[in-house]
Amino acid sequence: MWAQPTLDFKRIRESSVMNEHAFTMGIDIGSSTTKCAIMANGATIAAQVVVPAGAGTSGPSRAIEEVLGIASLKLGEFAMIAATGYGRNSSKEAALTVSELSCHTKGAVWLFPGARTVIDIGGQDCKALSISAEGQLVNFVMNDKCAAGTGRFIEVMARILEMDVSEMGATDEKATGRIDISSTCTVFAESEVISQLSQGVGNISDLVAGIHRSVAVRAAGLARRLGIEEPVMMTGGVSLNSGVIRALEHELGVKVRTDPLAQYAGAIGAAIYAYDNC
Questions:
Q1: Could you tell me the pTM of the whole model?
Q2: Fewest CB within 10 angstroms: 23, 126, 170, 187, which?
Q3: What phi-psi label fits residue 62: left (phi over 0), alpha (psi between -120 and 50 degrees) or beta?
Q4: Residue 135 and residue 97 share a domain
């Protein structure tokens, strides 16, 4: 992980240089979550928030309200607002809409300049992006037809195991082996895990490790179709799961980098596009 520039927003608000900053907002409206990021001059983050509700719900409006509260700003104070993600065309606040592939590329490069391969595992899809040395999107592959290998898959498995998704990574660390999940369908995999539990599986941690490998295998397959070029970065909400990161590194045989702000890559990219177009 590496440190990224953040804004001392309180100091800026109280100083005489407030008018020197152009504030933009990026809204990433996904299928299951909404992320918002506010940036100053397309270079530093002033505030960010994620709400566990996406397109077609109150998630976007809640996320905007929360991020405005954090930054003590009003919508009228923004130079530009841009939306991306599955529900980008439904945003009434955004004057600009940008494809999620473009925004994830822009955001990933901002988080980690030099990234050449980006793997984004979201709530209901998985993407692999190939990025040029100049930071431009070269090619991509996406799986958005099946929940296997996505955050939704992990959420289903966590519910069966009666644990919070945030606990999965730490549980994986305790594994002494791995109980692989052979089913490629989320529904069948759910039945397989239930069967394992009913038979009295010895170590839940080994089962969690198998679940994480199942996700990693599918993501690695997408990335290999592009051709792996290092450095490799992972974005999306699942990037917060250390178990999936470890499994993906094992499958690819390379270091997979991430960042505490990686799940905001799309929103960050949208905020930068907003600045470039204001």
A1: 0.85
A2: 187
A3: alpha
A4: no
